[in-house]
Amino acid sequence: MAEHRALTTIRRLTLAGIGLTLVVVVLGAYTRLADAGLGCPDWPGCYGQFGVPDSEAELQAAAARYPDAPVDVGKAWVEMVHRYFATALGALILALTVVAVRAKGAVSRALPTALLALVILQGAFGAWTVTLKLWPQVVTAHLLGGFATLALLWWLALRTGAVPVGSVPARLRRLAVLALVVVTAQVALGGWVTSNYAALACPDFPTCHGAWVPPMDFGRGFDVFQAVGPNYLGGMLDSEARIAIQFAHRLGALAVLVVVGALGWRLATAGNFLAPWVLGLLAAQITLGVLNVFLALPLWVATAHNAGGALLLLALVTVRHCIASGAKA
């Protein structure tokens, strides 16, 4: 009986964590895209306090303490709301881990423990994002950490039966793994695009500046040894380096379309329940990516593109789980 209660609690905490992580991922995307990543120049507070300065005295104190970072109340609140939700997520995952560790036998402790370690690392990345002034390597790693947290929580929900699923043909194992790898790589490329402000490096589609292969500088665009120290708000790369990043992201999108599309088609021909989710999310992602170019990166489209990437990843994790759990063709 006690084990059953513990499992029920773990399931509820996991589902709550999934919802909260989705909020944090979307808020993180919104924060980056709204150029609010340095809305607060310090961490974990904001101009030396745990709220946003708004009174005349607080604004004067903030200006005196951070003369090179004028207060933008709107951007500061965007950043702090993201931090509040991230803190709540950390507390929830800590509670989940404690319950899992104390409930011997109810669920494996490995996943909750890994989640706790990951969310602690995410807190460090959040701090470094500010202290290293949006260094692209840290911003991209922070994005990947958020997606990894979401994927692990979803995997835990699947493993504990919090999310019931059906079967997937075992013959799709290799294709499902390849799809996961390709989408994960594309998420990383997307993070590199946003952290280097390369989303609008190509103003047209499917060509780039009217050319199928425009002048590009991949060496500069993918230099992971960029110096630490400058303020990377707005980006530091020249046009050809940003074009290289955007071009690579477009090639990645083509790979996703081919590999995930093939997986979705194979699922559809097998009459599998996951086919509409995989194909629907894939179509939505491609559409949102193209709209980002044609509409010049409207905030809501770009944020939805991030959320769609997270949901597509969860669909592929579900496919992989159904195969790994022993589903038969």
Attribute tags:
2 domains, 10 helices, 68% helix
Fraction in helix: 55-70%
Please identify the structural class as seen in this structure.
mainly alpha
Name the helix and strand elements from N-terminus to C-terminus, one letter apiece. HHHHHHHHHH
Task: Please state roughly what percent of the residues sit in beta strands, choosing from under 5%, 5-15%, 15-25%, 25-35%, 35-45% or over 45%.
Answer: under 5%
Query: What is the gyration radius calculated from CA atoms?
Result: 21 Å
Number of domains: 2
Number of helices: 10
- Low-confidence stretches are none
Question: Judging from the principal axes of the Cα atoms, what is the shape?
Answer: flat
Please, could you describe this protein's structure?
- The structure is a single chain.
- The chain folds into two domains: 164 residues, no CATH class; 163 residues, no CATH class.
- Helix 4 runs antiparallel to helix 5 and helix 6 runs antiparallel to helix 10.
- With 329 residues, it is an all-alpha fold.
- Helices cover 68% and strands 0% of the residues.
